Amino acid sequence: MPERHLDFHPPVIAHRGARNRAPENTLAAFEAARADGVLWIETDVKLTSDGVPILMHDETLDRTTNMRGLVADTMWADMQTCDAGGWFNASFAGERIPTLADALAFSRATGMRFNFELKPCPGRARATAMVALIEAAKLWPESAPPPLISSFDIEALTIAAQLHPGWPRGLLLEEWRDDWREIATRTNATSLHLNAESLTPERLVTLRETHVSTLAYTVNDPARARDLLNAGVCAVFTDNPAEILKAI
């Protein structure tokens, strides 16, 4: 069975790293999150055209690198030469796109825990889930608590459950769905990751009464974070971990 009682202490997860202080989904952002005092980091996993799992949120390279084009159409060898930091600030020029292996090595070296969101490009759900989970399993120490695997993509999450049933999984939902229990059961999800804007007081009561582990994203307002945690949310994803930690 998956790890059912994940320890979110402090109950703050750095969304793509501390992306308010460093370029998102880079080792620099992960180091910044660590310095801020959180234990958990969320990051996105996609595949290059030649099947290398990398950390990237968008379907294109345009916004967060100095390259252009679709991630799914670009080979890893070409991505290794791009700058993934200069767009954020000149002081981060030369920052590279990390691979999933880089994130796993960072976790092993620092003790930081990761939530890997499977974020497949269109038509690549099966490939993304299989490659990412197989590679992660090869590199992950059996003695260490496993990473949390999450996705909006039901197919990817279902495949993750089949490949590594003992690893925790988070079901991501953009909007509230009354059939969330059915989907969570189908994927054997450990936690429910919900858009904070969808969490009304009534829904928070329902979630608390059903004893589901609820995580809320993306919460950058300290007062809202405090209210959600007081209402029973297990942890919040934020771009500003240092500010949220001060408020709770």
SSE inventory with pairings:
Layout: E1 12-15, H1 27-36, E2 40-47, E3 53-55, H2 76-79, H3 100-110, E4 113-118, H4 125-139, E5 148-151, H5 154-163, E6 169-173, H6 180-186, E7 191-195, H7 201-209, E8 213-217, H8 222-230, E9 235-238, H9 241-247
Parallel strand pairs: 1-2, 1-9, 2-4, 4-5, 5-6, 6-7, 7-8, 8-9
Antiparallel strand pairs: 2-3
Helix pairs in contact: 3-4, 4-5, 8-9
Molecular structure report:
The chain has 248 residues and is of the alpha/beta class. The chain has a single domain (12-247), classed as Phosphatidylinositol (PI) phosphodiesterase (TIM Barrel, Alpha-Beta Barrel), CATH 3.20.20. The protein is built from nine helices and nine strands. The protein has an eight-stranded parallel beta barrel, surrounded by six helices. α3 packs parallel to α4 (125-139), α4 (125-139) packs parallel to α5 (154-163) and α8 crosses α9 (241-247). The chain is globular and about 50 Å long. The mean pLDDT is 95.
Descriptive tags:
248 residues; alpha/beta; TIM Barrel; 33% helix; globular
Quick overview of this protein structure:
By secondary structure, the chain is α/β, with parallel strands linked by helices. Helices cover 33% and strands 18% of the residues.
Overall geometric form: globular
Total domain modules: 1
Look at the structure and give the mean pLDDT. Answer: 95
Structural class: alpha/beta
- Count of helices? 9
CATH architecture: Alpha-Beta Barrel
Please describe the biggest sheet, giving its number of strands, its sense, and whether it closes into a barrel.
Answer: 8 strands, parallel, barrel
Task: Please write the string of helix (H) and strand (E) elements.
Answer: EHEEHHEHEHEHEHEHEH
Helical content stands at 25-40%
Strand order of the largest sheet: 1-2-4-5-6-7-8-9
Query: What is the radius of gyration?
Result: 17 Å
Fold-level CATH name? TIM Barrel
How far apart are the termini? 32 Å
Q: Using DSSP, what is the number of strands?
A: 9
SS strand fraction: 15-25%
CATH class: Alpha Beta
**CATH homologous superfamily descriptor:** Phosphatidylinositol (PI) phosphodiesterase
Uncertain segments are: none
